[in-house]
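[Meeting: bench + compute handoff]

Bench side (C.D.) handed over the final construct sequence. Compute side (W.E.) agreed to return the predicted structure before the next meeting so the bench team could plan truncations. Sequence as handed over:
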Amino acid sequence: MKRIFNIIFLLLFALVLKGYAQEQDLSAPQSGSEDPCIQHEDKTTAWRLSPALGQILPTRLDTAFLNFYRTDIEDSFTTSYNYLSNFGSPGQSRIYFDRVEQPDFLFMEAYDRFNVSPEKMRYYNTQIPFTQVAYLTGGSKPNAEDRFKASFGGNINRRIGLGAAIDYIYARGYYNFTGVNSINWQLYGYYLGDRYQIQASTNIANFSNQENGGISDVNYILKPENVNANLSDPKNIPTNLENSWNRVKHKDFYLTQRYRLGF
């Protein structure tokens, strides 16, 4: 009798475990389905493309307010970052393994953080038009750093989509001749049919920043007590260069297409 009771208990326990596992599986992604992280209220999905083969790589839609202020802080890009004291200026990570692969155009490497290369381009498939606008600013009026970003994505139908984005940086700087005035914008379009697919994008960027060549008299830093100047304003520190600009203009066009055979 005890043996029969033990068998019944084990069967009931197994049924409970099976039911619990089925309940858990309902919330898990099903085989062959899209990554749920790219869903936004079941109305919008986003992806990027691998530059070599043009494969679709699902990506997240970040619309949260949490830590939004950190998007333009240097340590959000890498733990340690070298740049010319002003937001939007050329820079490079001090950590070797955080550095990007050197691009074909050498001078774009220092602006990689702000440049939207083909592998960074984001595509949207949405049931309703998707718009994201951000404005970030810091500092007082004489030395403020401003950034305006906007992106738009919309569908003509369930297979065809178009979109655009713009990123404008205007930073006056805390030191002499460190101003930044840069703008880049992007356009994309795609057709995703059952057999034929085509996706294309363009990125046009103009990066401009002043170059002051560094401090001309190190006593302003090493021995400020010997300098007859008001150092509460960093712009009183003399620099090696005046009215010198570094300008980099960049354009890229990317197109990938494929035709699928079979079922």
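W.E. noted at the follow-up: Confidence is low (pLDDT under 50) at residues 9-41. C.D. will use this when planning the next construct.
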